[in-house]
Structure formats: structure tokens, C-alpha cells
Amino acid sequence: PNIHTERGWIAVNEIGQTSDVKVFAIGDATRLGLVTHSIGQGRITADTIHYQLMHAPRSPENRQVIPYERIKTEYYDVCRGDFASPEQEAHKCMSCATCRDCHMCEATCYWGAISRVEHENGSYEYVVDDDKCIGCGFCAGICPCGVWEMVENV
Known about the structure:
Elements: E1 5-6, E2 9-10, H1 35-54, H2 86-90, H3 104-108, E3 114-118, E4 124-128, H4 138-142
Antiparallel strand pairs: 1-2, 3-4
């Protein structure tokens, strides 16, 4: 197949599809980026192909990306150059800037104000029961992803 390129990069649409509708491309073949960008593009493309094969409509993702300043990097493995096996490296967090569903906030809340809610579409969210929350901030302090944001209660 003849795949369209632009300035040496494979040209793709928002779902990773090339000029040949049966061929998808992601990652550094399409543009320079971080490994997390490639992982995210791969996930979107895999979901798209899955829904196409199942003849089902694809519902859009509505995950909010967490601002970098709110991510607590001390929770993540530090890259020191002494790389282990590829299998061990694959288990390290690459900081996708979204909730990684670790349950730390839920487990830390002494008052049980945080709970995990699963939605029918397979997504989830952590919610706060305002009647139980005392505003201690432990959830925001323990969250490695910076998901929780404390707001002044005045």
C-alpha cells in the first residue's frame, strides 16, 4: 500500500489511521513524542480497531489530564540509567497524568469519605461524600497523580 507521508512522518488522523484505511501508525513513526504519548495513541488506536471489528460505536474518552505541577514525582521510579530487563522496565510508571486507580486516597481516608464508583461504560471515578469529608487533605497529599485538589472552604 502507498502510505501518505508529510516531511518524513507517516500522516495519520486523530485515531492513528493512515491514508490507507486498513493501516494504522502511532508513536515516533508519526511524530516525536514521549513514550506515554505512544502508549496513549496505541490505546486509542486499539480501541478504535476493537470497536470497528465489533461494529459498535466508540464513545469518546473524557479523562481529564492532570497538570504536571500537581503530579508528585517522588512516588515514581527515578531513572538512574541502570536499566533492568525490558519486562521490569515495562512495570515502571510512565506518568500518564491521569488517575491510575491505586486506591491510595480511598484507603487513606479515615472517615470513609472517598469511594470508587464504576460507570456502565466501564469507566470509574473517585467521589467524595461531602457529609463525611472533614477537609484534612490526606487524599490530596497521598495521591501520586495529583488528582485531588483542595479548595478553601470559606
